[in-house]
Each structure stands twice: as structure tokens, then as C-alpha cells.
Amino acid sequence: MSAATLRSRRPRPAATVLLGLVLLATACGRDAPAPVNEQFFAFGTLVELTLYGPDPGRAAAMASDLAPRVDAWHAAWHPWEGDGLARINRHLARGESASLDADLAGLLREARQLAIASGHRFNPAIGGLVRLWGFGLEPPPDEPPPAARVAARVAAEPRLTDLRFSDGSVRTVNPAVQIDLGAFAKGVAVRRLVTALRDAGVAAGIVNAGGDLQVFGRPGERDWRIGVRRPDGNGVLATVTVRPGESVFTSGHYERGFTDGGTRYHHILDPRTGYPVRGVRSVTVLHPDPARADAAATALFVADAGTWRQVADRLGIEFVMRVDSDGRIHVTESMEARLSFPQESPPPLIRGTPDAPTPSS
Amino acid sequence: MIAALAAVATLYAWLWAGGGPGTRARITVDGAPVATVALDEPRRLLVSGPLGPSLIEVADGRIRVVDSPGRRKLCVRQGWLSRAGETAVCLPNRVVVSIAGRRSIDALNY
User: Fold this and answer.
1) Distance (Å, rounded) from C-alpha A93 to C-alpha A179?
2) ipTM of predicted complex
3) Can you give the pTM of this predicted structure?
4) What is the per-residue DSSP string for A63-112?
5) In angstroms, rounded to a whole number, what is the distance separating the alpha carbons of residues A197 and A219?
6) Which residues on chain A are in Cβ contact (under 8 Å) with B102?
7) In the predicted model, is pLDDT for residue A29 greater than 80?
8) How many beta carbons lie within 10 A of that of residue B45, not counting itself?
9) pLDDT in tens, A138-164
């Protein structure tokens, strides 16, 4: 079979995608003129920018400017590679104090506050456990780690409250603490990207980092329509109405994992057991702060069927959709008002409290 | 909990829903457009990404990734795309195939 070979004519990290020209012809009256779409790869995922306002050339320049900044954050926050957070983790493991800059100190304090509010269901101190499972490694793992090693990690009870901050440095009173900001850093990155775009004068748009996103401004006179992926396959489970400044984050069991002996092991670990959380397929959260939404999506995935609503309250999260392992959709009242389902007969929504425990939890 | 900031070389793929039938698809490598193809002109093309060639096929008004370097080949397993906004992302090879046209939603959360 003959095939033409194509190469990128523009070997740079981001480039213009002129979706806008296609949309322009069919845009309805309530929409703004069509957006410009940009995309680049960073944070180990595809980052997509939907921008209303800038012309394609300016949008491309913005993306080219932002991509290396995201790469720099990724490097600074990587838990075990490089000289940022990884260096701090190496010091903490040896019981040593580690210097850190004000930026990272601020993020760790913010993460600690969220961890406390979540009852440590969002627990960035379990970096050692995450690494033991190896979900971030290449090649990915194909079997769970030895049970005794998992149990030892859990018994050590690492928490961000074990950290002690002093002027320009941090230490831990628990040598088991290894910091992994995986349920938080993407939220911070999205927050910073949106801030940068607004500061650059972009009127409205979306920053979508591998499916987790924040919108700003409006696409014309309407609110945003964001599709939430089905946790059990491709396609859209529901469309959620999103207002200016809100972010939408989902933690899903489908994102990463492996199957061993007929058992599926996904990447969202319960800090209390050391094993992947059972009984949940996905949790979707809306909140104006993407970093809080990121942490909350994980915390509410880890929380039990009977307690997630209380945890959401303590985290200040009003909008939650939680799909359990039987495919039942649990929603908060506020979230239900934002949802619409594409199916002809919408699935039953479970609103009441407390929830019945799920069979597998 | 979570994994990882690490750059994981998994393939990621997804489908938009609700768009009408598309007539053209756009292909990008590492964010840069390399081709826009009409879906009514059957052809096969090779796109060079960082890990090697990704083979893409157009037939019967649809487009799919036939093969692409990577461990899980999620973008291959996704199969045919035909509706506006449907997208396949071959993450390790940084190849994105998407159907142009008006989408029913502004973005997909996953």
C-alpha cells in the first residue's frame, strides 16, 4: 500500500489550528466569533487552548510562550526526577532539612490545607506508595507490589502535616513522607495558564490539560457546554453547563492502570489501604479554583459512598457527580441542575443521603 | 494518589459526541498541522512523529489510525472517526487526528 509521508512543517512546540475558520460559517447568533485552537504536549499529556479574541498568529505566539513554562513547572514538581521537588524528597527520605523556594513552599502549604480538609483522602505525602506501585513508570507495571511492602507504607502513615516549614526550608518528622503532587499540580498549572492568558488580554477561552480544564469569560452570550466522558467507554456521559471562571476536573479509574490475574488495578490509591479504591468509576467536580477541584476529585474518589458528601462540604465543593462501580450516578443537588444527558432516557440520578454502601467497598 | 506528573508513554484517545458528519480531518504532530484531508478521498498516509511513523487511513467518509508507535495503541483501538469533533490522540507519538466541523460541546472533560 503506497502512502504519502508527512512531516511537520513547523517543528515547534505549538502551532495554530484553524478550527475557527470552519466554525465561522455555521456559528449561531448567540456564539462569539469562532475561537482559535492551540495545542501542545506538556505534563505528559495534551494541553489544548481554546481562545476567543486573539488572531491565529498571536494565539500561536502565546502557546509557544506558555509551553516551555509548563515544562518548567513539570520539572520543578516531578516527585523523583530532577532538582526541584525530587531533591526535597531525597532530603526528606534521609531525615534532612531541604531548602525550597517561596513558590514551592506556597504550593505545599496549599496542598497541606486541602489534605487536612479532606481528612487526608487527598494525601500527597504517599509518594513512596505511588512509586512502589509504579504507575508513573515506563514500562508501566503489570502486577501489584508485594503486600507486605504496601502494608509497611500504609502503616507509616505519611501525611503533609508531618512537614515542618521554617524560613526557606522544610523537614519532616516522619521519614516515610515522600511528596507526589499528582492530584494537585495539574490544577495549579491550569490555574496559572488561565491567569497568564487573561493577563495577556484574552477575553475568553478554555485551558484543557489532558481532560481537566478551566474556562474563562464567555463564548458569546451563553455559558460553556462541557462534555464529561463516560467512565466505561468512549463518548459523552453528560453535558455540564459551566460558568465563567469555573473548572471541571474528573478522577477516573480508566486513566491509568493494568490488569493482573483478571483483576484491574487502577492508579487512584486509597492511602488507608494502599490499594486502588474500589466501588467508584469516576468523580467529577466543578469549582472556581482548579487546584482545589483537582484535589477534591481525588479526595471524593477515595471517600466512602457514605461519607463523600461530608468530605465535599468540608472541602467547600458544591458540585459533584460520582459514578459508582455499578454505573449508578450520584449527584449533589447543585450539580444536577447543571447536567444534561444526551440519551433519550436519562439515567436515574441518586440524590439522597446517606448513600447505600456500594457492594465492593 | 495519583499518579504522576511523570510523562507516561500511554496512548490516549477519546471521542467527542454529538457533532454532525464531518467532511474533513485535520492531522497534527506535536501541535503543528501537517495535513487536512478530505474524507471522501480514500487514501493512506504516513505521519512522522517523534517515535516513528503513524499510519492513517481514509475510507468511506471516515478516518482511522491503523498503526502508531506506542505500547497500548489506544488511538488505533479507537477505530473510525467520522463526526465533527471526534479526535484520536496518539500520545507517545504526539499525533492527533480530529474531524473538523461544528461540535455540540466546547470541550471534553475526562
Assistant:
1) 10
2) 0.82
3) 0.86
4) HHHHHHHHHHHHHHH-SSSSSSHHHHHHHHHTT--EE--HHHHHHHHHHH
5) 15
6) 22-23, 26-27
7) no
8) 20
9) 788 899 999 999 999 999 999 999 999
